[in-house]
Every structure is written in structure tokens, then in C-alpha cells.
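Message: A physicist's question: would you kindly supply an amino acid chain plus C-alpha cells?
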Amino acid sequence: MKKYFAELVGTFTLVLFGVGTVVITGGATGMVGIVGIAFAFGLGLVCAAYGIGPISGCHINPAVSFGAFVAGRLSFVDMIGYWVGQCFGAILAAGAVSVIAAGVTGGYNIAASGLGQNGWGAGYGGGYNLTSAFLFEVLATFLFLMVILGSTQKAAPSGFAGLVIGLTLVAIHLLGIHITGTSVNPARSLGPALFVRGQALGQLWLFWIAPLIGAAIAGLLFRIKLLEVE
């Protein structure tokens, strides 16, 4: 249970920093903009990695846990436990962001302004279509898992994985924010969608299926030793 609780805390940290930055100081008119949002997610992951990494490995992402399962590094039971912790952590963090945002003078309208939810299509980000959104999420998650599984294998230098993985997440966000808002993390998408509802919930399926496909491909390549040191 300690591992699952650690995943809850770690995912809470990631979503609070990342989604909170989108809502409070991000966006075109905010103080930090796209680059700041990308670094908020990346640095949030770094904080979690060094905080809970020794306990659970700091997956804080159902796609990462699924990729580790496919690669043979995580049991099915632990994967389910991690997923539960991750989803609850993301929901709690999204709820915390909504409460904080509501405290601004004049209030905060989630229906009008959103809560950092992921999406695609007309009226969202750069207006990219379903094909672009799906392909980006599959490829980005595959590359993300390649870095995660590669930097945490036994032959990799120890102590640097958290930093490398966090910087990779920054790069992924810099590319993908205008496409889907960047998910590569089903729990991160689930939390805000439950509060925004409407289109965010209707499009949530993509942010589960596409990342899991990308993670499965990476996990399989490590399982058959094509990307893992013998």
C-alpha cells in the first residue's frame, strides 16, 4: 500500500504543478506562457521522482506503469494498484486547482476557462484534428517510455534518471501543447476532465488509448531486448 500511496502523492504533485500553472499563470495572456507550462510539468515530475522514486519508482502515469508491465518490470497486481493511486492523485490535484482558482477576485468559471484539460479539434489549441492528436500522443508516449525504461535499466548511470525524464517531459510539452495540450498520461487527463466535463470527457478516450499504445510498443521493445542492454 505504501507504493500505491506514493503514486497518489507523486501524481498529485505533477498535476498540481502542471495543471495549476496552466490555470493560474499559463496561457497566451499569462505570466509564463507555453515554455513555462512545459517546465512546470517537467519540474513537477522531477520533484516527484526524487521525493517518491525510492518507494515506488515514481511512475505517476498509468501509461508508464503499463509500459513497465509489458516490459516485465511490474506485476499486473502492482500495475492496477498504481493506476488507482495515480487516478485518485490526479483527481485530488485537479480539485485542489479548481478550489484555488475559484478564490480569484470575480471567481473562476471552469466551463468558460477550462481546467487545463486535454483535447483536440476546432476551438482547442491549434485546432489539430483527431489523426494529428492520436498520432502525437502515441509517438510522444512511446519516446517518453523509451527514455524512462532506458534511463532506469541496470546499465544506465544511476542518480540522473529523474532529471533526464523530467527534461524529456518538457520537450514533449513544447511540441504538443498546441496539438492536444499534451497528455502522454491518462491520469493527468482524467483529473481535469471530470471537473470540466462536456467535450473534455467526450474526448478522454483518446488520452487513455493512444498513450497506452505508445507505452506498449516501448515496453515490448525492451521486453524482447531490442532496446535493453543484455
User: Anything to note?
Assistant: The CA atoms of residues 13 and 47 lie 8 Å apart.
